[in-house]
Amino acid sequence: MKKSLLVYVVDDKEEVRKVAQDMLARLGHRPIVFSDPLKALTDFLKKGQHNSYPDLVISDYEMPGITGDVLVWGVKEFSNGNIATILMSGLYPPVDASDRVAFKRSNADAFLSKPFSLGDIERTIYKVFPELVAVG
User: Fold this and answer.
1) Which spans in 1-136 are helix H?
2) What is the DSSP annotation of 78-102?
3) Superfamily assignment of 6-132 in CATH?
4) Using one digit for the tens of pLDDT, what is the confidence trace for 58-113?
5) DSSP 132
6) Angstrom distances, CA of residue 33 to CA of 44, 72, 99, 131
7) Rounded CA separation 66/44 (Å)
8) In the chain, where are the structural domains located?
9) pTM for this one?
10) How, if at all, do strands 6-10 and 110-113 pair?
């Protein structure tokens, strides 16, 4: 039996949140979506709605308030690297030097280019959680 991950999805665009939420649910995971990265970080620090930390945080890069690299970096620092993170962006792979620095500095476990398909998100999660790949 595959493990069901508790996944925070953080993106300021409703259509991206909805698509990611639907795809993650189809893959058997439990997504919680946030439009505001500061609210996501606050929820994370308080152990949120499920009284536990998420297994995975998927965050957009460009958002108002704080950028996704800062959110991902904060999650990594707070959890001593024990919570997996995926940074997603329409800018990936980054062409701008400052974006390359930000992506590297975030210490994200993987990157996901937008727009993405169900297969893209599934492969990216498997990169981070290879133990989830179905044996057979």
Assistant:
1) 14-26, 37-45, 68-78, 97-106, 118-128
2) HTTT-SEEEEEETTPSP-SHHHHHH
3) Response regulator (3.40.50.2300)
4) 999 999 889 999 999 999 998 888 999 999 988 666 567 777 787 788 889 999 98
5) G
6) 12, 15, 24, 24
7) 15
8) 6-132
9) 0.90
10) unpaired
